[in-house]
Every structure is written in structure tokens, then in C-alpha cells.
Write a structure and sequence with these properties.
By secondary structure, the protein is α/β, with parallel strands linked by helices. The chain has 17 helices and 21 strands. Strands 1, 2, 3, 4, 5, 6, 17 and 18 form an eight-stranded mixed beta sheet that branches. Strands 7-16-8-9-12 form a five-stranded parallel beta sheet, with helices on one face. A hairpin with a 3-residue loop joins β13 and β14. The longest helix has 21 residues. The termini are far apart. The chain binds flavin-adenine dinucleotide (FAD) and 3-acetylpyridine adenine dinucleotide (N01). The site of flavin-adenine dinucleotide (FAD) has 36 residues, from α1, α2 and α14.
């Protein structure tokens, strides 16, 4: 296993690790493994690094977690030499950052661009993964690391007559590199998720006319983008390590001034109001952490819903449009909330109109535009901001076969099953970075990525030190972890929405809440304990010989304190879901 990965190519000697994807996950994984003396190759479908920030170039695309925190913390030199220009960096700056990281650590020599992995099969005899690419190249690797992204595979959504439309159709997630000039154009956009909410205000400024087709309104909070807040900058400059550590030691992987003790329903209304106003003025996700009961108690959640509805009415002059823009079918926070710059006010512009697809369903695309049940709309261009086959889409598009030829699609037929969101039973030496069953999309993803990369790297070092050739999640530990994932989300309101977290945006996808909702800090501690207990729940082999055969999962950090008022709600939901025995 000493071949130079720079020359890993069809039928070459096996490499230590084949990493799929050159977003932040794949880039850090490569750097980390190299530093530990492993050889690794990255295969990336795109032509450049950055993943999300390479593909999603739509107007207005930017991060919605402050860049001070949404950036790598693994290297102090990198951290010190990079300065973010704004509180929430735009796509172009994030892509520059990804390129800077690639240059600084000389990553490109081990990344093959324009290379899509189509198949990966475990060869039990050779204890290797056999990997194939779209162009027919073949690699062999001891470990397969899927850094394929949770939000990298657009949904296959299509509409009747779409091929008859004579103008261009753009997907936010596959935006042309040369950009799009909408000046003087009549534009239609379908979708009102985060991508649409970011792009609508910018497209509206350029286009002659913009028609927004909305199926479900979303909650959106103002970003209040601008210079990095002084308090944050000062805290970061004073001690970047402590600042990072504080971000990582939170449920969401970013500092949100989270209140875990006070319930909105037990606080005087004027104090609740003042707190929500304070957080709305700060911007971004801060309102999510205002009260301990928002995410659990329907009544408490309604207080925030009404507060945001009022903010929408304040910003949108036409009361009928404001009403259309107000979410009514899901509690606040149960679909990923959006963060915007001028979204609601955009609907006051004379060149912007809103179509409610529930009131007038889309019938067909035509050569000139879109026909709904009520009207024909003519467009020069259409934008699809229709979302992703999240968490599993990029993984199950690969013909992945584990032990005995078992396919990942079979294994996940009723929803993705993993142990810790890191490994899958029956798929030895295959790791997922921020995979289903890990906190991933419920967190600041960079912190989740760093935690996964470092755990995987440590695991590979341990295997190497002990001359072990494979590690694999046991079926029992995987089942136990799936129960943990269910138990973490069941007490909350999260399962009540038809969200992409639940797989609800993809027809036929099994309904299952995919990420682990127990918080990044809790999860990190669980992973640490699992490794410290000699990788409990994993089967470790040397060739055919089983060296360690652990089938249990016992790592449970202490439960955080919960306000007494919430306990009966939590117990009732866990009992109803069969996750807690009913009291006798
Ligand atoms: P990605 O960046 O998705 O990279 C995966 C890479 O794998 C892609 O380049 C893809 O081409 C490649 N790939 C996939 N399958 C294959 C294959 N079969 N063969 C070869 N290559 C393959 N997260 C936050 O925490 N905060 C934010 O503010 C935020 N904003 C976002 C905004 C947008 C528009 C989107 C879409 C996501 C956002 N996210 C955000 C989530 C974001 O995806 C993560 O923060 C992070 O960038 C993920 O990095 P990654 O490397 O894991 O995956
Ligand atoms: O996708 P979405 P997204 N007919 O799934 C609609 C991250 N992100 O790309 O809700 C009509 O949220 C669909 O309607 P409905 C972030 O995690 C972050 O916007 O299903 N409409 C919805 O309105 C985010 O959550 C940022 O009824 C159809 C929209 O399309 C995730 O990526 C920016 C339809 C899809 O919304 C995904 O966001 C961008 C149909 N057939 C993305 N099919 C930041 O701000 C779908 N829709 C950092």
C-alpha cells in the first residue's frame, strides 16, 4: 500500500482511501489522511473544489451561519490568514476560500475532477473496495469514504410539457458558471425554499418581471448582513480556539445564545415579545434559541409563528400577499427556516407577483411559459429552485454493494440505517461524512464535517496500528442507533412537517427523520465514548479473523436538564412511538 496516490489510476495498486467528493468534507479528509501518512485519492464529479459552493452559483447565494463559524478551524495558519469580508459570505467568496484551502494544502494533485463515481463493490476476499467511474476508470481502495454531500443531488422533479418551453430553464443548484443576465426579461421561479428566498430579491432587481410560484410558504428571518458584529470579531480575535470550542460545544454547532431553561409559555408576554424582538434584530437563526419550549410545545411554537406572521405583515404592504406568504401548515423550525435579505419586501415591487400553486395548480409548461388552472403566464426564462434528494440522494445514486453483494438501496429500502451516521452494517470500511443518522444538516455543517473527518482518521490510524484490515458496524449497534435517532427527534415537533429532513419532498422516498436531532455536542461525546470503548458496536477483522466483535451500543452521555413543564409532553410522545414503556 505504498503507491503514490497521485498516480492512482485504473487497475493500479490499491490505495488506502478513495474519497468521493471534493467539497469541504472531501478536502479536509484528504488533508487529514495525508498528514497521517495514508495515501488517498479524491474523485469529484465537478470541475473544481468547493462542492455546494462550486455548484450553487445562483444570484444571492450565501451562507446563513456567520462565516467566522462557518469556516475551517483545523489549522491556525489558515484561520489567521483568511479574513471574511462580510458576516455571511457570498458564494463566490466561499468558492475562493475552498480554492485557497486546496492551494494552501496542495490538495489538487490528489483530486481527479470531472470524475463521477458510478459503482463501488466490496471484495470480501481481497478486503478492498472496487470502484468504477462514469468514464470507465477503476480504482481499488482499502477504505471508501463518501464525502458526497447531504444537499448535492437535485431532486428529479419535472413538470408536464417542460421540454416544450422555448426559453432557458435554470436550476439554482446547477447554475451556469458564466452567470445569467435577466435584464429586461420576464422570469418565472418555482419554489420558495432557502435557494429561492435568497435569489428572488436579487433576480427581482434585474428582471423586467418576476413571477414566484409558491406551493408552501416558509418562515424566513432577516440576515442583517453587513460587517461581522464587533462583539463576535473581538471574541474571535482574542481567542480563536476558545471561540471555535464554544461553537462546537452547542447543539447546532454555532453560537446561538440558546436558552434551554426558560419556557415562553411560562414567561410574561411582554418579556417574550422583548426577547423575540431582540433576536429578530440580531438576525439569522438566533430566534430559534429564544425559548426552551419552542421546538417541543405546540402552544409555545405558536407564539413564535404569530410573531413572524406579524413581521411578514409589517414588511408586505398588500395584506392578501402577506397572508399568502405566511406559513400555516407546519410549526416554526420543523422545515429548515430560511434567512433572507429583503425577501418579504420584494413582494412590494411592482414587477414582482406571487402565485399560490395550491389555489391555482400548475397544469403544464407551454412553449411560451406556464399554464396554471387559472391563467397562462409568459416567460423568457424559468428558474427551478425545487430542492434536493437530501442526505441519501448522492449515496444511493451510486451502485454501492457491500458484503455478499447487498445493495445500499436494499439496505435502506425503509429509510437510511446507519451506525452513528458514520458506517452501515454489511458495508465494511465504508464511511459517510455527515451521513444520515448524524447531526449534519441540523448543524453548522463545517463543525460536523471536522468532527466526522477527525473521528474517521483516528479510526483508520487505530486499524493500521493494530494491523486490522476491516471495520464494520454490527447490525445490533446499527439498530440501536436507529432507535436513538428516533428517540432524539420524537419528543420534538420536527416530525410534524413534510420536510426534506423526512424525505417528504421526493415521491416514493421512505418517510423517516434522517438526521440525528440530539445535538452536535452530545453526539460528539457519544462518538468519543464509542471509540474509547475499543470501537463498541463495530466488528473488527484481520482478513477472515474476527479480532473484536462488539454488538452493543452503550454510550449515552447524561441527558441535558429539561424544563419540568416539557417532561410530560416528551414522555407522552416517546410512549406513543413505542420508544418508552408505558407507565403501569
Ligand atoms: P458538498 O459540498 O455537497 O460536496 C459534495 C461533493 O461530492 C460535490 O462536489 C459533488 O459533486 C460530489 N459528488 C457527489 N456524488 C459524487 C459521485 N458519485 N462521484 C463524484 N463526485 C460526487 N450548511 C451550513 O452549515 N450553513 C449554511 O449556511 C449552508 N448553506 C448552504 C447553501 C446551499 C445553497 C446549499 C445547497 C447547502 C448549504 N449548506 C449549508 C449545506 C452544505 O452542503 C454544507 O455546509 C457543506 O458545504 C457540505 O460539504 P460537503 O463536502 O459535505 O458536501
Ligand atoms: O430546496 P427546498 P432549497 N411544484 O427543498 C418547491 C440548504 N440551503 O434548494 O415546500 C412546486 O428547501 C418546494 O415546495 P414545497 C438548506 O438546508 C441553504 O431551497 O415542497 N413546487 C419548496 O418551496 C435548505 O433547506 C441556503 O411545497 C415545488 C422548494 O421547491 C436546503 O439547502 C440556501 C415542487 C424547494 O425548497 C434546500 O433548499 C439554499 C413542485 N413539483 C439552500 N417541487 C442558505 O441560505 C419542489 N417545490 C444558506
Amino acid at each position: 500500500m505504498t503507491t503514490s496516490s497521485a498516480h492512482a489510476s485504473p487497475d493500479a495498486l490499491p490505495i488506502d482511501a478513495l474519497i468521493v467528493g471534493a467539497g469541504f468534507s472531501g478536502m479536509y479528509m484528504l488533508h487529514k489522511l495525508r498528514g497521517l501518512g495514508f495515501n488517498a485519492t479524491v474523485l469529484e464529479a465537478g470541475s473544481g473544489v468547493g462542492g455546494t459552493w462550486y455548484w450553487n452559483r445562483y444570484p444571492g447565494a450565501r451562507v446563513d451561519i456567520q462565516s467566522l463559524e462557518y469556516s475551517f478551524g483545523f489549522d491556525e495558519g489558515l484561520e489567521q490568514e483568511w479574513r471574511w469580508s462580510e458576516r455571511y459570505a457570498p458564494q463566490a467568496e466561499l468558492e475562493r476560500y475552498a480554492n485557497h484551502v486546496a492551494d494552501r494544502f496542495d490538495l489538487r494533485r490528489d483530486i481527479r475532477f470531472d470524475t463521477r463515481v458510478t459503482a463501488a463493490h466490496w471484495d470480501d476476499k481481497a478486503q478492498l473496495w472496487e470502484i468504477k467511474t462514469e468514464k470507465g476508470a477503476h480504482y481499488r481502495a482499502r477504505h471508501l469514504i463518501l464525502a458526497t454531500g447531504c444537499l448535492s443531488m437535485p431532486t428529479d422533479v419535472t413538470f408536464p410539457g417542460i421540454d416544450t418551453f422555448e426559453g432557458p430553464i435554470y436550476r439554482t443548484s446547477r447554475w451556469p458558471h458564466e452567470g445569467v443576465d435577466f435584464t429586461g426579461k420576464r422570469v418565472g421561479i418555482i419554489g420558495t425554499g432557502s435557494s429561492a428566498i435568497q435569489s428572488i430579491p436579487v433576480i427581482a432587481e434585474q428582471a423586467a418581471q418576476l413571477t414566484v410560484f409558491q406551493r408552501t410558504p416558509n418562515y424566513s428571518m432577516p440576515a442583517h448582513n453587513g460587517p461581522i458584529p464587533k462583539a463576535d470579531m473581538d471574541a474571535w480575535l482574542k481567542d480563536p480556539r476558545a471561540y471555535r470550542a464554544a461553537s462546537k460545544d452547542t447543539g447546532g454547532g454555532f453560537q446561538n445564545d440558546g436558552n434551554t431553561t426558560t419556557c415562553a409559555t411560562e414567561t410574561p408576554p411582554e418579556e417574550v415579545r422583548a426577547e423575540l424582538e431582540r433576536r429578530w434584530a440580531w438576525g439569522g437563526f438566533r430566534i430559534l434559541g429564544a425559548f426552551a419550549d419552542t421546538g417541543v410545545d405546540t402552544e409555545a411554537n405558536r407564539i413564535v409563528q404569530e410573531f413572524i406572521a406579524e413581521k411578514i405583515r409589517e414588511q408586505v404592504k398588500d395584506p392578501a400577499v402577506a397572508d399568502m406568504l405566511t406559513p400555516k401548515d407546519h410549526p416554526f423550525g420543523t422545515k429548515r427556516p430560511c434567512v433572507d435579505t429583503g425577501y418579504y419586501a420584494t413582494f412590494n415591487r411592482p414587477n414582482v407577483s406571487l402565485v399560490d400553486l395550491r389555489a391555482e395548480p400548475l397544469v403544464t409548461f407551454t412553449a411560451q411559459g406556464i399554464t396554471t388552472k387559472a391563467k397562462d403566464y409568459e416567460f423568457d426564462a424559468v428558474v427551478l429552485a425545487t430542492g434536493f434528494d437530501a442526505m441519501t440522494g448522492a449515496i444511493d445514486r451510486i451502485d454501492l454493494r457491500g458484503r455478499g453483494g447487498r445493495r445500499i438501496k436494499e439496505h435502506w429500502a425503509e429509510g437510511p440505517r446507519t451506525y452513528l451516521g458514520l458506517m452501515v452494517a454489511g458495508f465494511p470500511n465504508m464511511f459517510t461524512i455527515t451521513g444520515p443518522g448524524s447531526p449534519s444538516v441540523l448543524t453548522n455543517m463545517i463543525n460536523s464535517i471536522e468532527q466526522h473527518v477527525e473521528w474517521i482518521a483516528e479510526c483508520l490510524v487505530s486499524l493500521k496500528q493494530h494491523q486490522q484490515t476491516s471495520i464494520e458496524a454490527s447490525a445490533e449497534a446499527e439498530a440501536a442507533w436507529c432507535q436513538q435517532v428516533a428517540a432524539a427527534v420524537t419528543p420534538s415537533l420536527l416530525p410534524q412537517a413534510n420536510s426534506w429532513y423526512m424525505g417528504a419532498n421526493v415521491p416514493g422516498k421512505p418517510r423517516m427523520f434522517m438526521p440525528y436531532a440530539g445535538g452536535l455536542n452530545t453526539y460528539t461525546e457519544i462518538c468519543r465514548q464509542v471509540a474509547a470503548k475499543n470501537y463498541e458496536g463495530f466488528i473488527i477483522r484481520q482478513g477472515d479473523r474476527v479480532l473484536s466483535d462488539s454488538h452493543v451500543f452503550t454510550s449515552h452521555p447524561p441527558m441535558p436538564d429539561i424544563p419540568a413543564k416539557l417532561l410530560p409532553i416528551i414522555v407522552e410522545r416517546l410512549t406513543a412511538a413505542g420508544l418508552m414503556p408505558a407507565a403501569q
